[in-house]
Amino acid sequence: MSLLMYLVHTTPIPLLVLFPLLLALCVRADTARRRGWMLIIAPLPMLLGVLFWYCYGQPETFTEVPWLMLGLHWRFDTVLTPILLMSTVLWFAAGLYVWYSLRSGTGADEPHIGRYLRCWLLTLTGNLGLLVAADIASFYTLFALMTFAAYGLVIHDQTKRALFAGKIYIIMAVLGEGLLFSGLIWGAAQAAGGALTPVAPLIHELPLAIANSDYGMYIALLLFLGFGVKAGLAGLHWWLPLAHPVAPTPASAVLSGAMIKAGLVGWLLTLPLGGDLESAANMELVPTIAVLLGLIGAYGAAVLGVFSKKAKTVLAYSSVSQMGMITMMVGTGWLYPHAWPAILAAVIAFAVHHGLNKGLLFFGVGWLKALHGRARWVVLVLLLIPALNLIGVPFTSGEYAKDLFKDVISGLPVGLFYALFTYGALATTALMIRYFYLQRRP
């Protein structure tokens, strides 16, 4: 134990992040089908590092490399640790799924296995890396790496539907990256405007700089929409219901469970949430838009989802609906800065709860396709657990996450919004009923 603790405390954080990238360099096309084990071990260093840091580490654990890029600064963030842990566990489980498929022969005849493994490892590197990146340059680089490498997961099957979904995905990705790049550069310029030396600001300096800037509303809008593409924001979500049905099942699980949270993380790191009322007063339009789009996403996606004919499409619309609820939570915290600390705890709990349960439901699609008879019904019954969690029935993680938020807004002058958020469970219930209806027979 002491040796493991020593290794965790002395290992630079970039090595934990870049380990999957090193594995990607070792993937060869002629031996790729025997390299499924790489997907299992790729997230393990980060998983062990987070667990030991969380249990024995210090909040100020960080790694600095001043000469790299604009000054690399990576750290374990106490607030984002639950999302990092959830994402790492989900990637590990999905890697097990791929390894078993290749080992059992069910996925051995899939084309482009080598490209699939490389894109998987590159996407994993970006996804976990952006959760520990504290400087703007490396955060954007890792976010872009995750975004564009995931294109290979979407088009893996090379069918017409997969290639069409890939086109929509890449168009939305380029749009989102353009908005993000503009917002981050503009925000960084505002943060460094008063500096006597050309020191690149860290990402945690952006919220205050944006709040105090005369152009804060425009910068915040760029970042909100840019990250909103990845978060499945209503109106920017169209890649989700197209990409999930065509991507392999484990890829769909990490796309919806882990990667979609990258948009939320971007909001939490860059937007002026919390703080003093005066600094937020000049941009009330953006959080109002956030609440409205979250409301549209929560209920509108449910309407589209219940008419879908594929289980993975239903789950994709469910993700848009759930992220719509999270968007409402973020917008509410933005409008009422004094309540933000409590709302932030609810947002983190909701994101972790959604990621794990949605990942299990996506795995269930693949499991049910491979099973027959009594085993199939046993799995179908077990899948009721994550479904009921998402709905938020009593004594589940969904009830806990939603109650955290409802306890806060019950004391705020939100009017009808409280009921709209509460009745969001009905939308989730309709989607889960449709999911099981489509899964009822092989």
Automatic annotation (TrEMBL):
Membrane-topology descriptor: Multi-pass membrane protein
UniProt keyword Transmembrane, yes or no: yes
Main location group: membrane
Domain NADH:quinone oxidoreductase/Mrp antiporter transmembrane: 133-368
Domain of life: Bacteria
Key words, A-Z: Cell membrane, Membrane, Transmembrane, Transmembrane helix, Ubiquinone
Keyword Cell membrane (UniProt): yes
Pfam families in UniProt: Proton_antipo_M
One GO location term (cellular component): plasma membrane
Positions of transmembrane segments: 6-25, 37-59, 79-102, 114-133, 139-156, 168-189, 215-240, 252-273, 285-307, 314-336, 342-365, 377-396, 416-437
InterPro entries: CPA3_Na-H_Antiporter_D (IPR050586), ND/Mrp_TM (IPR001750)
Cellular localization per UniProt: Cell membrane; Membrane
Family: Belongs to the CPA3 antiporters (TC 2.A.63) subunit D family.
Name this polypeptide is given: NADH-ubiquinone oxidoreductase
Native source organism of the sequence: Aliidiomarina sanyensis
